[in-house]
Amino acid sequence: MMKIGILTYFWGINPGTALQAYSTLSLLKRRFKDSKVEIINYQPKKAEVPLFWNYLNVTSTTNKFRTYKMINTYNLFRRNELQINTAPLITKDYLKAIKFINDKYDLICVGSDTVWEISTLMSKNLAPFPNIYWLSPEITAKKVAFSVSSGTTTFDQIANDDITKIKSLVNSFNLIGVRDDITEKFVKRLNLGNADRILRTPDPTFSYEIMKTGIKDKLLEAGLDLNRPIVGVNLPLMGGVRANLLNHLKESGYQVLSFNAIKNIRDVFLLPKVGPHEWAELYKYLALSITDRFHGTVFSLKNLTPVIAIDCNTDRFTSSGDSKTLSLLKEFNIDDKFHFNIRNIKRDQDRIFKCIENAASNFDKDFVKAKLEEMNARCVNFIDLMEDVH
Questions:
Q1: Which of 120, 195, 108 has the alpha carbon at shortest distance from 150?
Q2: What's the DSSP call for residue 126?
Q3: Is 36 helix (H, G, I), strand (E, B) or coil?
Q4: E-assigned strands of the chain?
Q5: In whole angstroms, what is the distance from residue 297 CA to residue 81 CA?
Q6: What is the percent of the chain where pLDDT is above 70?
Q7: CATH pick for 215-302+307-362 out of 3.40.630, 3.40.390, 1.20.1270, 3.40.50
Q8: Mean pLDDT across the stretch 160-167?
Q9: DSSP state, 167?
Q10: In the predicted model, what is the mean pLDDT of residues 208-235?
Q11: Rounded to an integer, what distance in angstroms lies between the CA atom of residue 215 and that of residue 79?
């Protein structure tokens, strides 16, 4: 029996990360029914420690209980849905990680997510480059990169010695699927041999089938009127820009559902505790989604909900203005209408107010629906190509 290992991000309280791992696992299990497919329980840092400190630092008893329930919800999701029940290897040591993985799998699938980022590893307390997500020529298994992203790391940021090392590591992959413009440009500038093995591949969540969950009842219990338009907002503070945006939405007659805790703004509904599957479905109850999250953008599109994607921090886009959300919206031909970065908004907030006003009329649901079918097919086709690799 062939054994396939998936090496990706899956820890923490992050529905997008959880669902990309779930989608990758589901795709491979459907395609390789006679093989053993599992997520490799490797973590570069111990997720429970920062989560525990976050719990202790929450002052309100209600919020402590909410945080505890969220931690428990995601632990159950990893155990039951991702089927991760083994003891993890937690290390930033490259050689220890190689030893943990080597000779255990016939094929290793790396990705998706920003597993090939380099420029932000230190700020995120992740394993420095080179880390195990680039694998190693020493590893005997066949190697596939599935919808990997380099985040905001560009070729020009990397020292020459590291470029040589990256080229050697990436050359050992049998098949390479890249998720966005930034990563595609990066990999192509490596001038690898056999360029046909490099493909543009959608995030695996485009293959995810949205389930019917209890999210509708939770929204009703939170006090929302599902017969009136709701705007979901998932944004950081942005130096007061978020507060202006929330007030504008309320003045325009929308119910505002905030994915983040809000202070000093009345009449904003807080998203109740939800698991990843509920989070994936809730977007269908929104008239509009405003988010800085890649997977928040994905699931807005999957629910045919107009979405405004904002890159809120300068480290979320390159010096040339590229970002993973911009790249995603380009695929749906709506980047010029629905994408902003914080510099644009600070210069002219009226632009985003106008975008909100025209969101429904500028969002072509028929085109988006057809594109979603194409993205799903491309995910499936990439998995089919893995058959030739093994």
A1: 120
A2: P
A3: strand
A4: 3-7, 36-39, 42-43, 89-90, 107-110, 142-148, 175-178, 198-200, 230-234, 255-258, 269-270, 288-291, 307-311, 339-341
A5: 23
A6: 95
A7: 3.40.50
A8: 93
A9: H
A10: 97
A11: 21
Is the distance from CB of 368 to CB of 289 less than 8 angstroms?
no
Q: What is the pLDDT of residue 74?
A: 93
Residues 258, 235: contact at Cβ < 8 Å?
A: no
**Whats the size of the chain, residue-wise?**
390
For residues 183-197, give the mean pLDDT. 90
Residue 291 phi/psi, 5-degree rounding, is: -150, 155
Rounded to 5 degrees, φ, ψ at 326 are -60, -45
Work out the number of other CB atoms within 10 angstroms of the CB of residue 366.
8
In tens, the pLDDT along 73-102 reads 999 999 999 999 888 999 999 999 999 999
Q: How confident is residue 49, by pLDDT bands cut at 50, 70 and 90?
A: very low
Whether omega for the bond prior to residue 112 falls within 30 degrees of 0, making it cis, is: yes
Question: Which amino acid, residue 154?
Answer: T
Instruction: Return the closest-CA partner of residue 290 out of 332, 338, 330, 252.
Output: 338
The pTM is what? 0.93
Specify the pLDDT at position 388: 85
The phi, psi pair for 208, rounded to 5°, reads -70, 135
- Of 390 and 386, the one with more pLDDT: 386
362's enclosing H/E stretch is helix 350-362
Q: Is the pLDDT of residue 192 over 60?
A: yes
Please give the C-alpha separations between residue 114 and each of 58, 182, 234, 248, 271, in angstroms, as whole numbers. 29, 11, 20, 33, 26
DSSP letter string, 311-358: E-SGGGS-TTS--HHHHHHHHTT-HHHHEEEHHHHHH-THHHHHHHHH
Average pLDDT over residues 299-320: 90
- Answer whether 19's CB lies under 8 Å from 208's CB: yes
Q: How many CB atoms lie within 10 A of CB 328?
A: 25
Q: Is the pLDDT of residue 232 over 50?
A: yes
Give the DSSP per-residue string, 252-307. TT-EEEESS---S--S-EEPPP--HHHHHHHGGG-SEEEES-HHHHHHHHHTT--E
